[in-house]
Amino acid sequence: MLYLVFSVCCSVLVSVLLKLAPRQRLDMAQVVTWNYLLASVLSLVLLRPSLASLHAPHAPWLALLGLAVTLPAIFLVMAQAVTRAGIVRSDVAQRLSLLLSLLAAFLVFGETANGWKLAGLGLGLLAIVGITVRPRGAAAAAAPDGQRAWPWLLGVWVGYAAVDIMLKQVALSGTPSMAALTASFALAFVLMLGVQLWRHASGTARLHWRNLGAGALLGLLNFGNILFYVRAHQHLPESPAVVFAGMNIGVVVLGALVGVFAFGERTSVWNRVGLGLAVVAIGLIAWGTAG
């Protein structure tokens, strides 16, 4: 279970870094770019994925390219959500993206729907409504330019679900998940590096060393989240539902504690109800998956 704890901590620390980035005047696009450089290198060195499957005729390059575009995009959306809505609500929205993934599993991938999963889906949708409600008095502090937070929360919800659906498509092609992630990280870095070089050359945003340092830290946490989650599944091969529930519920609970007590984030009654419903929904879906 120690691997699961480490994975949860890495995930929440990513949100903390995104929360602190504006205070340090970091350029998030540059930070995300360097994050994928380190993540791809660490994946190659530590996970040593077999890349032979990427040369096969059925290699899902369209899905991999989609991941290379969506992964950095959703990171930038998550950064905006954390800044405007806070860690508490953003982490809940991220983890509840499994609802859309579950719906896609029923409608597209032919997964069997049972009562537990459907109950979790229903409660999860109610939880999404609860967390998108803006706490009174927190709007000015969270979004000084007057922009609402809920579009960014919904963007997180939909974006992470899109990533999960593309990963399912990759898995159906027979490509190992670690090889697919490594390829996606490398492609994401190449695409984002091209964007940053253009921004630098055009004078839009100059490259700066501090963004490289922050990107390295983000990449370390991003990769650590994946590595420890994989190790948790390897050490609990008979309990995948426990790992799944522990990861998602752990991030929701720890994110809430960090957001409230470390950053003084305000939550409304509806937000707290939504958080509670999210925990129950994740538990029901995990129970239904185990059954």
Automatic annotation (TrEMBL):
Transmembrane helix among keywords: yes
SUPFAM superfamilies: Multidrug resistance efflux transporter EmrE
Domain called EamA: residue spans: 2-132
Keyword Transmembrane helix applies: yes
Membrane-crossing segments per the record: 28-47, 59-80, 92-109, 116-137, 149-167, 179-199, 211-230, 242-263, 269-290
UniProt feature coiled coil, ranges: none
Gene3D superfamilies (UniProt xref): 1.10.3730.20
Pfam families assigned to the protein according to its UniProt record, in alphabetical order: EamA (PF00892)
UniProt entry keywords in alphabetical sequence: Membrane, Transmembrane, Transmembrane helix
InterPro entries per the UniProt record, alphabetical: EamA_dom, EmrE-like
Name of this chain's protein: EamA family transporter
